[in-house]
UniProtKB/TrEMBL annotation:
Pfam families: Glyco_trans_1_4
Organism: Flavivirga rizhaonensis
Keywords: Membrane, Transferase, Transmembrane, Transmembrane helix
Record InterPro entries: Glycosyltransferase_grp1
Any one Gene Ontology molecular-function term assigned to this protein's record: hexosyltransferase activity
Membrane-spanning residues: 83-102
Listed name of the protein: Glycosyltransferase WbuB
Coiled coil: none
Amino acid sequence: MTDILIITNYFPPETGAASNRIFHLANGLQKHNFNVSVLTPLPNYPTGQIFEDYKGKFKSSSIENNIIIHRLWIYASNSKNKLLRLIAMLSYSFSLCWFFAWNKIPKTVIIQSPPLLVAFTSMLFLRSKKRKLILNVSDLWPIAGLELGAFKKNFSYKLLEKIERFNYKHTDLVLGQSNEIINHVKSLFPEKDTFLYRNYPDFIAPEIPERAESKGKLKMVYAGLLGIAQGIYKLCQELDYTHVQLHIYGTGAEREKIQALISNNSELDVIYHGEVSRDKLHEALIGYDLTIIPLLNRIYGSVPSKIFEYARLGLPMIYFGGGEGEEIIEQYNLGWIAEAGNYNNLNTIISKIKSLDLELKNREQIIKTAIEYFDFSKQLDLLIEKI
């Protein structure tokens, strides 16, 4: 069996797309007879506090699903203070250095990026002609941070650009979740070996029930992180509720603001359901008419993994984020496109879907598309050939 190490900032029991993505990768490799181990911080996302079962520990090691998991100390924080965020990243980098110094590292290592500093630490200490380093790039930092308003083009930004280039230069293979990521890496290092590795889901979907014709308002759902980038608070304010009722699942930085908005504005037809397990969420999602995938601003390189997960559930989508995601929705006929940031256009599309009695996308066809084109196992087989 080939030994392989995965270094990541997110892993179950943490929730979210990043955690699910790395778990599926680790689990898939293990099923293909790789001896998989994972290096990750003590669970703390998205609360910014170490989970109760891990409090007071400097390190925790366990075997789960035949995967060896080492959870290392981190100064956990989800503070908006940039200095505290930096300290959190540096603390995990320190733990990684400590682990590298005292443990034998496999010859094949997959490193998740971002965070850039964690990837940089791994690249710096694990470079070796005898070792293959694979960089899994899920978002383009620092470009994404600049587009989100988290960075300005100053000395710090230029330093992050140098770190980004260092990481690309010293990896043997770059896995990119979008064509935009692959193109960006190739623009910097044309000869770099790359592989388009989409965030395809790996789960058994619940049986889709027969649906009666939708009466009354369209029931539209958002499920996921309630963060600044998603802009759910603004979405709640800008929606025209004449034809739609919005249901929300998840948690994040905007949760309390959203709850207060709902509580103080009874005219907003919004229902907040809190955070539920992934299995329960899937069962709930298939009961809605359609879902919305929003981004407050178009982020270069970003393709929300929700597209592929919702397709597997047969859930029609309104995509409201711009970029490569639009191309996927249109190419595979998964739903409708609203111009990113244009709430008048979004409301117009919702109105047409309802008032003009436009046929909701065929759910069975969406599922067939997902099975044919978004197959996790087929993609993993191709990746293994590269490893």
